[in-house]
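Quick one, probably user error.
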């Protein structure tokens, strides 16, 4: 495989690992019988812990790669062509997120089910991209330090004040909007606090890009990532407890009792460091292609597992009903099948789009001709009416 020196292959490898972790995580969590969900079982607890790393890594790497592509362009602010592409991408992810929750059978009945309005990972990543663009444009005149500092500040504010806003009541907002802020109606993810991981990835991307020509970049990045990650994992809870005792602020005590955000941020840094450490050995073609096809894999897995459009997915027939061995073998097959179909789609994407463009182009042409014909008819009719009332000459 030819090596593109401008591409960060360790990021593609992280994305591949994260999407495969997500596939098996969704499969096992959705289909494993409750009997085997034993927190005293070391294997189950290990799986459960690593499953919890997946989403933070996914959001962080999404913010990283988008910002990496964004700030490579010399133009700034709205003049950067990546801004418009990013807006299009963000809206596209939002649209796909809603589309995957659409049930065609219900639509044919003239009904949109409540699950359509629930917010999932695609909605939040799409909105996160739009949010990063907003920060980028607003800080265009302070790009050197204003942009990264604003990003880091967003992460810290969202993580520190999570105990306050997670209990907020958003019932005054329309449900479509409220679902982005509360899980009360069934949303899987909410933009708060998950936007914080995306902005942190964006912040790291700025630093990475700024020092990309340094020969010691990976040495410092790996060492700093492992050190900071370990501090957050093992000592951040004690830090907030001490801060609470010293200041008497209840907020810090609340963070101590449910300190998942900073601990998971530490996990993210460790994962990044490990993949950077082994970056020379993770350039397998298929693995990297999986990392570059995460959206297609996500769509395929949603259709097979949750039955998008029809409701006829594995989740409907095997919900919480499988034992350990069927679930392990099934998860392996599920990852392979989703990856295979997604990569096949990527191989034929250009051909499929060209085929789709033929009827779409025909529809556009017919629509244009119909509009022109309608305008000419209306124009002639308008002239006749004016003549009838003596307002136009024959």
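Nope, works fine. Designed sequence:
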């Amino acid at each position: 495989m030819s090596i593109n020196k401008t591409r960060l292959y360790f990021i593609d490898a992280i994305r591949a690992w994260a999407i495969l972790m997500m596939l098996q995580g969704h499969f096992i969590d959705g289909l494993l019988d409750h009997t085997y969900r034993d927190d005293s079982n070391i294997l189950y607890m290990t799986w459960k812990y690593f499953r919890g790393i997946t989403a933070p890594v996914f959001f962080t790497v999404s913010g990283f790669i988008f910002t990496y592509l964004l700030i490579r362009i010399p133009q700034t602010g709205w003049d950067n062509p990546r801004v418009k592409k990013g807006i299009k991408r963000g809206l596209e992810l939002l649209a796909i997120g809603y589309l995957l929750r659409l049930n065609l059978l219900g639509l044919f009945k003239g009904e949109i089910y409540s699950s359509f309005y629930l917010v999932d990972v695609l909605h939040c990543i799409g909105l996160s991209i739009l949010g990063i663009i907003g920060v980028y444009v607003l800080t265009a005149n302070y790009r050197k330090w204003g942009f990264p500092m604003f990003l880091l500040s967003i992460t810290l504010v969202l993580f520190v004040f999570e105990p306050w806003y997670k209990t907020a009541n958003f019932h005054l907002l329309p449900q479509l909007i409220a679902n982005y802020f509360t899980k009360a109606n069934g949303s899987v993810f909410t933009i708060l606090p998950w936007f914080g991981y995306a902005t942190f990835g964006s912040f790291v991307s700025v630093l990475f890009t700024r020092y990309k020509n340094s020969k010691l970049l990976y040495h410092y990045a790996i060492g700093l990532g492992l050190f900071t990650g370990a501090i957050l994992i093992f000592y951040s809870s004690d830090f907030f407890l001490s801060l609470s005792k010293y200041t008497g602020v209840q907020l810090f005590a609340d963070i101590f009792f449910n300190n998942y955000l900073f601990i998971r941020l530490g996990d993210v840094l460790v994962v990044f460091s490990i993949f950077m450490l082994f970056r020379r050995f993770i350039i397998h073609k298929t693995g990297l292609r999986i990392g570059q096809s995460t959206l297609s894999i996500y769509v395929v897995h949603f259709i097979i597992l949750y039955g998008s459009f029809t409701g006829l997915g594995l989740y409907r027939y095997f919900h919480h009903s499988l034992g350990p061995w069927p679930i392990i073998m099934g998860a392996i097959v599920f990852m392979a099948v989703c990856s295979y179909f997604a990569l096949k789609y990527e191989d034929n994407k250009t051909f499929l789009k060209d085929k789709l463009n033929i009827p779409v182009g025909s529809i556009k042409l017919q629509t244009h001709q119909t509009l022109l014909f309608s305008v000419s008819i209306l124009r002639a009719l308008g002239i006749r009416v004016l003549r009838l009332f003596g307002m136009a000459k024959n």
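The radius of gyration is 25 Å.
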